[in-house]
Specification:
The structure is a homodimer of 554-residue chains.
Chain A: H1 5-12, H2 28-35, E1 42-43, H3 46-52, H4 58-66, E2 75-77, H5 82-98, E3 102-106, E4 128-132, E5 139-143, E6 148-152, H6 157-166, E7 169-170, H7 183-189, H8 196-199, H9 202-205, E8 206-213, E9 216-218, E10 255-262, E11 264-265, E12 269-277, H10 280-292, E13 301-305, H11 307-316, H12 321-338, E14 349-357, H13 359-376, E15 379-380, H14 383-405, E16 408-418, H15 422-439, E17 447-455, E18 459-469, H16 475-495, H17 520-533
Parallel strand pairs in A: 2-4, 3-4
Antiparallel strand pairs in A: 1-2, 5-6, 6-10, 7-11, 8-9, 8-10, 12-14, 12-15, 13-14, 13-17, 16-18, 17-18
Helix pairs in contact in A: 1-14, 2-5, 4-16, 10-13, 11-12, 12-14, 15-16
The complex binds flavin-adenine dinucleotide (2 copies).
Chain lengths: 554, 554
């Protein structure tokens, strides 16, 4: 059976009949239909409401699968123009004699932080409306000469890549979720793609952004807006401003409707490679050396996976194309190990590399990387294993959903850590999780796996999987058990010097840990900033610094 | 006579007796001395007050030279700790039964936007105090392994470079003003250095920043602050926050007391080169091709100068070491032109190059640049000319002060322009200035010169000089004439698609043009953001978006 990744996600829901949801708030449908009269633009059915209110976090999905339902939006609307977005915000303010309703912008709903979930009725009793941004998904213009393009925020990563390819350019933004996640979601969460070393993070790509707030549109063009049709200026010294005030806003400051982003000619060369190291520590030391290379000499993607990650697919026992790619990776590892005596295959770690760019650039990168490989005694694992490994992380990301069928709960944790303490993080996380696992008397052993996914001058990014089997537990206690393990892991990360999130964001999941990381005066200032833009809290998602508890505990 | 650049600036003032200044506000000295009792930390003398209230803009300097004095601060204070800064802000709030006084942070006072000038008494009648940040100038720690260092904001660029060199590292931030300008000034103005292609702009270097506001300290550390002594994490997905909320704040949101910045090992190789082109247009096309190269292959600095810039030094007829460096550059141009028939030396344009980094990196950069040079038919001008040209811009920057003796008024204008319209800017500026010059019936001809100083993927930076001779005019009318020429030039830049400022900032000089470039809702939100941090406007400089007129005309 051919298993296409996004389909598996979409397949999930229809398997069971939709549960009943509380009736939507009274009069809401009329108000919304007055703004969006066209067929299908306002939906109140359970299917649409359940989808729009569910992200990709473990808790979101597990609750849905096991019918541990919390609050869902009353309606889902799909505007197609900026004017419609503004009209919806206006309607949200005036609804029910100014009581209003809340709006939560949603893109691909791939967040893993409960960012698109509705706050409970105790916290906010107004009706909630999800604003599905995928109706705004046009590439408005491409200026290939300057390397800039203006794009509506609801476009998915895959559609964006395809459209830009027709113009001979690429944005180079490739998060593992790119099939479903959207440009607006990337901006709102400060996303990071796999080819960051070459194309940068989302903040390096976005030159301009338009945001609709209850008070009107927010934009900034560095110069005479009239003189700058289909161009953009990525750097100016004109005080604080956009896009920085929007990157990371997690749906709480306004609705991002479009952005001007950098695009580049399609690369002359794309080459994959892989390298095998006898164990994680030696692989990690090698990664450290790669990070000492000048940024221009580093490959577009360079990721170290531990042995458990190589076994993960097997553990889930799913026959699919991606899995056979895994197998081929494992086989080439085996071949590699024939040359290597006295070292167990079970301890090995593998690096997958993507080189991308000019011929001359890629050649130099390969030459410099080769030097490091021989110095460190790594073994080349081949191009096909490298390509399989790169592609497979797109698939791994969705494998969690299969596990749920077997009551295997799993989630990823990511962090950035300074080089000087990075070696402490993974052992600390493993120890904390094992301790918690024993204390909770959970069945079997926790499955844990780690990869290093990004190299910065000052630190590296660790991306960890945590999975437990919850056979014999009620759905609710299974989730509670998982959440306490995850919390233990998160605290271990923070104590070992890692950050709260390198790219997933804060959402509702990690909001309680945010106050420790910034001064109360800053939190207060950011909340006041929102108050100024959105005094009646129309953008009602309450994520991160704008959640209810952000001022407590600091 | 050996002419050291910063000395010429310092020499300027004592030449004439200090003018009298209005008496400082009553009771101010006691209040300030209560916070800073040590000798010399509070100054009320005319010398200190004149210096602190004067930036490096033409208007600032000309007014001082010709005694067209406007308002100066009542006092200059020099705190040495963050606590003293906070105590001064507290004193500013409570002074005179809550009427308060205004505070303007000053670093090297090299801004060319009147940013450190006091607002007039009509706009703000409270006493004004300049906060000289150069008392906070320590390198607090250097973590060479991670490549990060924590540094107090008042350190000058030159001292910073020297201190870091002892640790074997560099920040790579080299604005032409680095002898005098400070880390805090760079952050507050969003400065850009000459080696940006390698080290980035200030926003690429700053990982953390501490800001003292009237309500208290603002900071953010991405993780457990206790676990992160002497480290820093440069990228996190934790909503909006620092340093973006401070970069470009131009002294209006709080006092930047320290920052954690990226530092790198000293480069293995530094090499200079120069290339000569028959005319500006051919040089500019070549620069465009360099910008098409992948970022990692571009030299650390690559600047194109027009012929007038090569003649500028001669026009000023000052004998000095820098001038003889110019001469040697011109001589090597002459040699180069011997090989070139039919093209006038007077039209030539020259590129100066700095290659910096790893041996392998620099070799590849040189190879790729060489290809472009031969394809475009450029002529190599040699390493010594390249080095002279690079160093000389540090000097040119200060040459303006000599011109003033001859009533030659001059100023630089900088902008970033998208590639697709960049060729329109310089002709448009020349035409606008000549028209204005004729209309005002000024003597002689305006002197104008241009260089292209930075290459981005989507556009280039133009740095232009404008000088006029004002013989026969009163000081006041001379300034007014110059300002109307400068305004004409600025409008021509904006109309041709350039931005208001690539790196000098807005200050008071360009504040009236800012509203056109951003939506009113954004301006209002940024002003509310300040209100939340500084409700009684203690940080009283009124620059840019926080000036009195920023909400008008939009
Ligand atoms: C399998 C998988 C792999 C992943 N891999 C990566 C990865 O490699 N890198 C990475 O950074 N992240 C990754 N993520 C996380 C997630 O994909 C990102 O956070 C992504 O940016 C979310 O985009 P989205 O369109 O799905 O947004 P959603 O999940 O729909 O929304 C996320 C947040 O953004 C807000 N938002 C969305 N659109 C708008 C808009 N137009 N205006 C205002 N606010 C808006 C929402 O209100 C919400 O707060 C992954 C997630 C999954 C499930
Ligand atoms: C000869 C010359 C060459 C130049 N070359 C360059 C160049 O190459 N690149 C470039 O970007 N700029 C250049 N400039 C402009 C200027 O040097 C920069 O704007 C510089 O960043 C100003 O730093 P400063 O320490 O002198 O700040 P100041 O001029 O003292 O102050 C500038 C602004 O920053 C604020 N400020 C200063 N310190 C603090 C602090 N600690 N906390 C809060 N606010 C603060 C002030 O209130 C003011 O608004 C040049 C200027 C001259 C005169």
């Amino acid at each position: 059976r051919k298993l296409s990744v996004p389909l598996t996600v979409r397949d999930l829901m229809p398997e069971r009949p939709m549960p009943d949801l509380p009736k939507p708030a009274e009069g809401l449908e009329e108000i919304l239909a007055a703004v969006l009269p066209q067929e299908g633009r306002v939906r109140m059915d359970a299917d649409a409401r359940l989808r729009a209110g569910t992200g990709h976090g473990l808790a979101d999905i597990w609750r849905l699968r096991t019918r541990l339902l919390e609050r869902f939006p009353d309606a889902v609307v799909r505007p197609e123009t900026e004017e419609e977005v503004q009209a919806l915000l206006n309607a949200a303010m005036s609804y029910n004699h100014g009581v209003g309703f809340g709006i939560i912008p949603v893109g691909g709903r791939t967040n893993v932080t409960s960012a698109t979930k509705c706050p409970s009725t105790e916290v906010d009793s107004r009706p909630m409306v999800s604003l599905d941004m995928r109706g705004l998904s046009k590439v408005l213009w491409v200026n290939a000469e300057d390397g800039v393009a203006m794009i509506e925020a609801g476009i998915t990563g895959m559609d964006l890549k395809k459209s830009l390819k027709k113009h001979g350019v690429t944005m180079g933004m490739e998060p593992d979720s790119m099939e479903l996640s959207t440009l607006g979601g990337w901006i709102a969460t400060r996303a990071s793609g796999m080819k960051r070393a070459r194309y940068g993070n989302i903040e390096d790509m976005v030159l301009e952004v338009r945001l609709i707030t209850p008070g009107g549109a927010i934009w900034q063009r560095h110069g005479d807006p009239k003189a700058q049709a289909e161009t953009a200026i990525g750097r100016a010294s004109t005080n604080i401003g956009l896009p920085a005030m929007v990157l990371g806003s997690e749906g709480c400051l306004g609705v991002i409707t479009s952005a001007v982003v950098r695009v580049r000619p399609l690369p002359q060369v794309v080459e994959y490679q892989s390298v095998v190291f006898p164990d994680w520590d030696r692989g990690a030391s090698w990664m450290r050396e790669v990070a000492r290379m000048p940024a221009g000499l580093r490959p577009a993607s360079c990721r170290l996976m531990d042995q458990n990650q190589l076994q993960l697919a097997q553990a889930l026992k799913q026959g699919s194309e991606e899995i056979s790619a895994w197998q081929s990776l494992r086989n080439s590892l085996k071949d590699a190990f024939l040359h290597w005596k006295g070292i167990s295959l079970e301890d090995a770690a593998a690096v997958t590399l993507v080189f991308e760019g000019h011929r001359a650039e890629v050649n130099l990168q390969k030459k410099e990387i080769s030097k490091l490989v021989s110095m460190a005694g790594g073994l080349w694992g081949g191009a096909s294993a490298g390509s399989a490994g790169y592609t497979l992380t797109f698939a791994i990301a969705y494998l969690r959903d299969f596990g749920l069928d077997y009551r295997i709960l799993s989630e990823s944790l990511e962090t950035m850590v300074p080089w000087s303490t990075i070696h402490e993080v993974w052992p600390a996380v493993k120890m904390a999780v094992q301790r918690e696992h024993r204390q909770l008397r959970l069945p079997g052993k926790p499955f844990m796996s780690c990869r290093m996914t990004q190299l910065y001058d000052e630190g590296g990014v660790l991306y960890m999987y945590l999975a437990i089997c919850t056979t014999g537990l009620e759905a609710q206690s299974a989730l509670a058990a998982f959440e306490s393990l995850e919390h233990a892991a998160r605290c271990a990360i923070l104590n070992a010097g890692g950050c709260l999130s390198h790219h997933h964001g804060v959402g509702k999941l990690r909001a309680s840990l945010l106050p420790e990381t910034q001064s109360l005066v800053l939190t207060q200032a950011l909340r006041n900033f929102k108050m100024a833009l959105d005094p009646s809290n129309v953008l009602a998602a309450r994520n991160g610094t704008w959640c209810t508890t952000a001022l407590e505990g600091s």
